[in-house]
C-alpha cells in the first residue's frame, strides 16, 4: 500500500514492551513482504499468534484442474449459468489460470470459515450483493462494484448479507497500484485515475473470543487446516503500509481522448505477469471524425479475459455477450467489434449519443491462460464464429 496507517492501540516505539492491562506483554506479529524488504505492518495480539494445536491435510477441490486452450480459440463463458454453492472461498468455480494467476466465479449466501492464502494476494470483485470482510486487521464492508484486495497471509473470512456473486483473482505474488500512478515514495500522482481518498480500509480493530479455532491455509504445497489455540481476531492495534482495502470501480476516473485509447488507460492494478483494468462509463471519443469504438486489435504478448459486470456493450452486439459473461481472447487471435458495430456507433453519435455506459473488469496475462472446469461447463460453443456471420 502506498501510505501508512494506524488502527487501535500501539506503543510509541516499535518492538518495545507493550503490556496488557493485567501486566502481561502483547504479542507482536510483523507481516512483511519480500523478505521484510518491502511493505509491512506490525500487529499486536492479546495471545500468541504462533500457538497451534493441530494440523490436518485437506483434499483439494476435485474441479481444480486446468486444460490448455486447444484448439486455440476465442471463448465465451456464461457465469450466470453457474450453480450457487459453498462460500466465498470454497465455492469458487475455476474459470482460467496459469502459474501467475487464477480466476474464479462464486455465487453464495454462506459465510466462509477462516482462511489464509499464503500463495499470494487476492483481488475479489463483488459483482452483486453485500458482504462483510473480517480479518486480523478489522472489518470492512463491501458491496457491488468493490474490489477487495487481500494481502498474502491475511487470516480472514467473508460474511455475506444475502446472496453475493464475485469474480475472484488469485495471484502468485502481490497485487499493487501501477507504478506509473505513484511517486517514487509511493504517493498517488495527480494524473492517476484514483487516489488514497478512494481507498477504504478497516477503521477499528475486531476482537473475537474463541479457543481451538480452525483456519484453512493454502500454500504451495496444498491445503492444510490449522487449529489455533486462540481466535486469531485478537489484535488490539496495528500500524504499517500493508493491510486489506477496498476500492469501488465507480471511483475510477476514466482517461479519455479525442480518438480511441488503448487498454492501458484503464489499468487499475498490476500483479506478477498480469494487469487488472476497469472499463467504466465515460464520454465517447470526441474528435469529429473519431471511430468511438475499439479497433480490431491483437495483443501479441497477452491473453485477455474480460468479465462484463454491467451496462451496455455496443461493440459486442450480436455476439451473445451480456452482463455476467466472460470472454477470453488469447494471443494468436485478432479480435474487435462485431460486424456492423462500427457504423452503428458512428450513427448513434450523429444522433446525439455521447457516452458509453459499459462496466467491465479485464485481466491481461503475459503467459497463456488454461481453461478451468467451471468455464468449460458454461461455454457458448458458437462464440468463436460470430465475427464471420
Automatic annotation (TrEMBL):
Q: Where does Fe cation bind?
A: 297, 303, 335
Give the Homogentisate 1,2-dioxygenase C-terminal domain ranges. Answer: 273-386
Q: Where does homogentisate bind?
A: 313, 335
User: Which keywords label this protein?
Assistant: Dioxygenase, Iron, Metal-binding, Oxidoreductase
Q: Cofactors per UniProt?
A: Fe cation
Q: Which InterPro entries match?
A: HgmA_C (IPR046451), HgmA_N (IPR046452), Homogentis_dOase (IPR005708), RmlC-like_jellyroll (IPR014710), RmlC_Cupin_sf (IPR011051)
GO CC, one annotated term: cytoplasm
Q: Name one GO molecular function term.
A: metal ion binding
Please state what the protein is called: Homogentisate 1,2-dioxygenase
Looking up Pfam families in the UniProt record yields: HgmA_C, HgmA_N
Family the entry assigns = Belongs to the homogentisate dioxygenase family.
Which GO annotations describe the biological process of this protein?
A: L-phenylalanine catabolic process; tyrosine metabolic process
Catalytic site positions: 260 (proton acceptor)
Homogentisate 1,2-dioxygenase N-terminal domain segment(s): 24-248
Amino acid at each position: 500500500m502506498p501510505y501508512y496507517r494506524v488502527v487501535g492501540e500501539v506503543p510509541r516505539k516499535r518492538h518495545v514492551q507493550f503490556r496488557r492491562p493485567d501486566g502481561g506483554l502483547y504479542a507482536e506479529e510483523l507481516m512483511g513482504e519480500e523478505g521484510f524488504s518491502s511493505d509491512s505492518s506490525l500487529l499486536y495480539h492479546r495471545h500468541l499468534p504462533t500457538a497451534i494445536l493441530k494440523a490436518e491435510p485437506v483434499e483439494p477441490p476435485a474441479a481444480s484442474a486446468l486444460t490448455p486452450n486447444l484448439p486455440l480459440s476465442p471463448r465465451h463463458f456464461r457465469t450466470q449459468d453457474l450453480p450457487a454453492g459453498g462460500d466465498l472461498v470454497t465455492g469458487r468455480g475455476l474459470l482460467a489460470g496459469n502459474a501467475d494467476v487464477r480466476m474464479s466465479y462464486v455465487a453464495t449466501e454462506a459465510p466462509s470459515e477462516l482462511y489464509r492464502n499464503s500463495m499470494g494476494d487476492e483481488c475479489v470483485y463483488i459483482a452483486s450483493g453485500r458482504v462483510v470482510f473480517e480479518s486480523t486487521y478489522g472489518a470492512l464492508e463491501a458491496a457491488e462494484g468493490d474490489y477487495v484486495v487481500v494481502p498474502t497471509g491475511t487470516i480472514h473470512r467473508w460474511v455475506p448479507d444475502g446472496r453475493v456473486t464475485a469474480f475472484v483473482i488469485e495471484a502468485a505474488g502481490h497485487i499493487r497500484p501501477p507504478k506509473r500512478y505513484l511517486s517514487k515514495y509511493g504517493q498517488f500522482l495527480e494524473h492517476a485515475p484514483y487516489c488514497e481518498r478512494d481507498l477504504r480500509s478497516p477503521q477499528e480493530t475486531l476482537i473475537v473470543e474463541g479457543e481451538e479455532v480452525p483456519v484453512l491455509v493454502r500454500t504451495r504445497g496444498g491445503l492444510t487446516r490449522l487449529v489455533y489455540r486462540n481466535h486469531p481476531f485478537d489484535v488490539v492495534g496495528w500500524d504499517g503500509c500493508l493491510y486489506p482495502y477496498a476500492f469501488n470501480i465507480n471511483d475510477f476516473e476514466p482517461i479519455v481522448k479525442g480518438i480511441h485509447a488503448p487498454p492501458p488507460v484503464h489499468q487499475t492494478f498490476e500483479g506478477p505477469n498480469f494487469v487488472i483494468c476497469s472499463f467504466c462509463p465515460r464520454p465517447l471519443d470526441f474528435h469529429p471524425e473519431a471511430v468511438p469504438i475499439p479497433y480490431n486489435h491483437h495483443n501479441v504478448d497477452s491473453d485477455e479475459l474480460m468479465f462484463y459486470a454491467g451496462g451496455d456493450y455496443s461493440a459486442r452486439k450480436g455476439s451473445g455477450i451480456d452482463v455476467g459473461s466472460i470472454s477470453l481472447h488469447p494471443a494468436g487471435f485478432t479480435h474487435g467489434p462485431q460486424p456492423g458495430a462500427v457504423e452503428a456507433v458512428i450513427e448513434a453519435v450523429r444522433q446525439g449519443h455521447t457516452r458509453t455506459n459499459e462496466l467491465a473488469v479485464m485481466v491481461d496475462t503475459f503467459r497463456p491462460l488454461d481453461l478451468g472446469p467451471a468455464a468449460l461447463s458454461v461455454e457458448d460453443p458458437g462464440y468463436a464464429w460470430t465475427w464471420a456471420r
